[in-house]
Specification:
865 residues, 4-stranded parallel sheet, 7-stranded mixed sheet, 26 helices, single chain, RNA-binding, alpha+beta
Length: 865
RNA sequence: GCCGAAGUGGCGGAACUGGCAGACGCGACGGUCUCAAACACCGUUGAGGGCAACCUCGUCCGGGUUCAAAUCCCGGCUUCGGCACCA
């Protein structure tokens, strides 16, 4: 770690307090953030400046929420990147007169704590709480205005008991249920929700291990009930990409459900219904075989005795496969025939039935009609197994062309062919008519299918919320009565190694008496997915110690939905979707009255390591902010993170530019404390710019300050922090040019400094406070915090231009610039322009055809051909 | 393969609704201050040509629309993110 530069060599530094009016050319005290920042942080805390009075209704409320961190141990620069602009928004909105609530907490349950516990032989709680301690300190070093009184830690029984309480309400309402099904299983994490399995290679979102399939009885939340409602983002101010991702994830498909029946043969009477879902009922006449998923319940029944051995072997193999082996579309199709046939309801044709793993048990009905002429996958399968391929949709003139690949396109002029009485109809209409016709005797119905699945919330591990149910041999599943909540995690944990849920080994936890019959019973040992915790934490912030329910309903009523949420886009189809689902479930059990949790969402980009890779300890590319704080101070880091680029973009971390904003803060320090000083290194320092008199300089200064105020105000509102910082730098550079001149003693100078500090306050709160305090002291005024000030008003007259420079083009090429009074008429401007030598030279004797005044006089283009 | 976002100097990036391309910063180069170094400050910095005034070219590539295109349209390339046989 590098020490701050040469601090010891400057013996005349004062510690605190304003300087008396310094004579010119006296060396002023250096800007030393390490001396200033902790002092103000302590002072703000003492004054409770960021504590929100939630009952205060005198000002407009503003609930600003940022995704709470996982207590991994260290805050890294990525956390700063999320939280710095969020804090700036909070401070800005407070200055706008809003009652801002900016809470913080910790997403404290989860696997890393257990891994650490196993590795170090300590309790997960110990590890978690020690990390939280350190992270609190680090978060405080940012100078962020979090309301720590509202802190929520999800592993606290005071929090998770309400997970349990909400679960019981969902259970009562039929929104939580237990079912046996094939689930995704991670060797480290146990079961996973669908959203938590990532990539083509099917790996666990958290640990990266390859996910397997298991057939288990698990707890689910019935979120598919909300599929259609979740597609409606009406009234929400969310980024389009997130809405698109959620929409795709929900995956609504319209089509028809068609009933095929099995054909009788010598071994069985037939007549079993085989339902399929299709988005292409228009291709029904082209179905030349059927495929069932290996897990389809009718597979055993429909297997011909001669085929039994082969089919069973195939089904077993498919079940044992990890999903990795079912890699992508590249993989060659496999499958086996059942040896029985089905009857196509539209034409009575007998078609063979196969079982193949390219059909998913979990989507639609787990069975398909295969139309090789019009589906790529069916085509591949048919080609491999030598099955017939029959074209039933064609553009005019292509009816008899050979089918050498699946034709899936949907052009307007396509008609049905080879489709009996429906031949000749446009494809779309034909499909509708076929469904209508079959529907008359119940052999089809219009249907909608979703990709979204119910949320699997069971986890086989210790460090999570125990699911509050009891399994009784006599009574079945019995909910834990409300008055017995919380079901506490036992203090002692016996890890028998990783992959074992310690709760299953804890006899005193497992063995209970049934609350209903009093007989012996077993407690549920699964715990909840930690995404449950993060699905309602922002409600808890509003009344973190409330004991009569998950939250104080009055507070929720007045403060939510959240006005602004900030966090990463990596949660697009996880946390951000769960939170919406959970909100709708809470609404349906009557604990809240709203439909959506977050009114406005902003996704900041991700900070990568210097190598462009994701920052992680294992990559060794993590930037430690503590070191940077010591070196440059929190304000410089905050500004630099905002200045790097657009907030939604992120990018690789590189510290090379940080010196630039540090220099900027030094200049602010200099112009605020030593306006009369001059730069020995600059011969022109202390002189007015050439061609400018004092009156002109005063106007220019005032203009610069108010112009900046106008622009910066808009930039804070629009989250354009990078240009906001650029404009503050520009203003400071302008002021620097007037330092040491007579103008630096004028009221315009004073006003400009005042505005600069106020504009800087949300972004760099410490230096703004320090300089503000010194100015107050120098003026003999009583101290008050800059963060309690109101945002200044723009003087539009001062901000307006007196003259403006107009670029002049001839035939679209820039040839000249003219400076004209701001209010000049187009006619006058045209005369000025045409009189210019350069314009005449460019015209070379031609008469202008026309003169275009663009964008309200922003530019003039003289056209001559 | 499908969906989404984006390609601008040596680098991060700026540019309102089609109107001066490169704000602001970094880096580099030159200078001032200093015994010296560091710090700080000032200046130059898209490419090419010219002594200069200036000229030409230039926003991923190729076309197009327009008085005017980084911005709009058509076609293509590349990078990043999401999805993964969803019938």
């Amino acid at each position: 770690m590098t020490a701050p530069t040469d601090r010891k060599k400057r013996p005349t530094r004062r510690k605190t307090g304003p300087k008396p009016a310094a004579p010119e050319r006296t060396r002023i005290e250096r800007y030393d953030p390490t001396a200033i920042e902790p002092r103000w942080q302590a002072r703000w805390e003492e004054l409770g400046q960021s504590r929100t009075d939630l009952a205060d209704a005198s000002r407009p409320r503003f609930y600003l929420l940022t995704m709470y961190p996982y207590p991994s141990g260290d805050i890294h620069i990525g956390h700063w990147y999320i939280k710095t602009p969020t804090d700036a928004v909070a401070r800005f909105q407070r200055m706008q007169g809003k009652n801002v609530f900016l809470p913080i907490g910790f997403d404290a349950f989860g696997l890393p704590a257990e891994n650490a516990a196993i590795a170090r032989g300590i309790h997960p709680r110990e590890w978690t709480m020690a990390n939280i301690q350190n992270m609190r300190r680090q978060l405080r070093s940012m100078g962020a205005s979090f309301d720590w009184d509202a802190e929520v830690i999800t592993s606290d029984p005071d929090y998770y008991r309400w997970n349990q309480w909400l679960f019981l309400r969902f259970l009562e309402a039929g929104l939580a249920y237990r079912a046996r099904s094939t689930v995704d299983w991670c060797p480290n994490d146990g079961t996973l929700a669908r959203e938590q399995v990532e990539g083509a290679d099917r790996h666990c979102w958290r640990c990266g291990a390859k996910v397997e399939k298991r057939d288990l009885e698990q707890w689910f939340l019935r979120v598919t009930k909300y599929a259609d409602e979740l597609l409606d983002f009406g009234g929400l101010d969310w980024p389009e990409p997130i809405k698109t991702m959620q929409t795709n994830w929900i995956g609504r498909s319209e089509g028809g459900e068609i009933v095929f029946t099995t054909a009788p043969d010598v071994h069985q009477p037939g007549g079993d219904e085989l339902r399929v879902f299709t988005t292409r009922p228009d291709t029904l006449f082209g179905a030349t075989f059927m495929v069932l998923a290996p897990e389809h319940p009718l597979v055993p029944k429909l297997t011909h005795p001669d085929r039994r051995a082969e089919v069973e072997a195939y089904v077993t193999a498919a079940g044992a496969e990890t999903e990795i082996e079912r890699l992508s579309t590249e993989r060659e199709k496999t499958g086996v025939a059942l040896g029985t046939e089905a009857i196509n309801p539209v034409n009575g044709e007998r078609i063979p039935i196969f079982v193949a793993d390219y059909v998913l048990a979990t989507y639609g009905t787990g069975a398909i009609m295969a139309v090789p002429a019009h589906d790529e996958r069916d085509f591949a399968f048919a080609t491999k197994f030598g099955l017939p391929i029959r074209r039933v949709v064609a553009a005019p003139g292509t009816e008899s062309a050979p089918v050498d690949s699946a034709y899936e396109a949907h052009a307007a002029d396509e008609v049905l062919v080879n489709s009996g009485e429906f031949s000749g109809l446009p494809a779309n209409e034909g499909g509708r008519r076929i469904v209508q016709w079959l529907a008359r005797d119940g052999r089809a119905k219009p249907a909608v299918t979703y990709r979204l699945r119910d949320w699997l919330i069971s986890r086989q591990r210790y460090w999570g919320t125990p699911i509050p149910v009891i399994h009784c041999e006599r009574c079945g599943i019995v909910p834990v009565p409300d008055e017995d909540l919380p079901v506490l995690l036992p203090d002692k944990v016996d890890y028998g190694g990783s992959g074992v849920n310690p709760l299953t080994r804890d006899e005193s936890f497992v063995n209970v008496t049934c609350p209903r019959c009093g007989g012996p019973a077993r407690r549920e040992t699964d715990t909840m997915d930690t995404f449950i915790d993060s699905s309602w934490y922002w409600y808890r912030y509003l009344s973190p110690h409330y004991a009569d329910g998950p939250f104080d309903p009055d507070m929720v009523e007045t403060w939510t939905p959240v006005d602004q949420y900030t966090g990463g886009a990596e949660h697009a189809v996880m946390h951000l979707l769960y939170a919406r689902e959970f909100t709708k479930m809470m609404r349906d059990v009557g604990v809240i009255a709203q439909n959506e949790p977050f009114q406005r969402l902003f996704n900041q980009g991700q900070i990568l390591g210097e190598d462009g890779e994701r920052m992680s300890k294992s990559h060794g590319n993590v930037q430690d902010p503590d070191e940077l704080v010591t070196r440059y101070g929190a304000d410089a880091i905050r500004l630099f993170l905002m200045f790097m680029g657009p907030w939604d973009q992120g990018g690789p971390w590189s510290p090379t530019g940080i010196g630039g904003v540090h220099r900027f803060l030094n200049r602010v320090w200099t112009i605020a404390l030593d306006p009369g000083g001059t730069e020995p290194g600059d011969a022109d320092s202390g002189k007015l710019p050439a061609g400018q008199d004092e009156a002109g300089a005063r106007t220019a200064l005032r203009h610069a300050a108010h112009r900046t105020l106008k622009v910066v105000t808009g930039e804070y509102t629009a989250f354009k922090f990078n240009t906001m910082v650029a404009h503050l730098i520009e203003l400071a550079n302008t002021l620097m040019r007037y330092r040491g001149t007579s103008v630096a003693r004028m009221p315009e100078w004073d006003e400009a400094i005042r505005l600069l500090l106020l504009m800087l306050a949300p972004a760099a709160p410490h230096i703004a406070e320090e300089l503000w305090s010194r100015r107050l002291a120098a003026a003999g005024a009583e101290w008050s915090s800059i963060h309690q000030e109101r945002w200044p008003q723009v003087d539009d007259t001062a901000a307006a231009e007196e003259t403006r420079e107009v670029p002049v083009q001839v035939n679209g090429k820039l040839r000249d610039r003219v400076t004209v009074p701001a209010g000049i008429s187009e006619l006058e401007l045209e005369q000025v322009v045409l009189a210019r030598d350069k314009v005449q030279a460019a015209l070379a004797g031609r008469e202008p055809d026309r003169v275009i005044h663009a964008g309200g006089g922003r530019l003039v283009n003289v056209v001559a051909r």
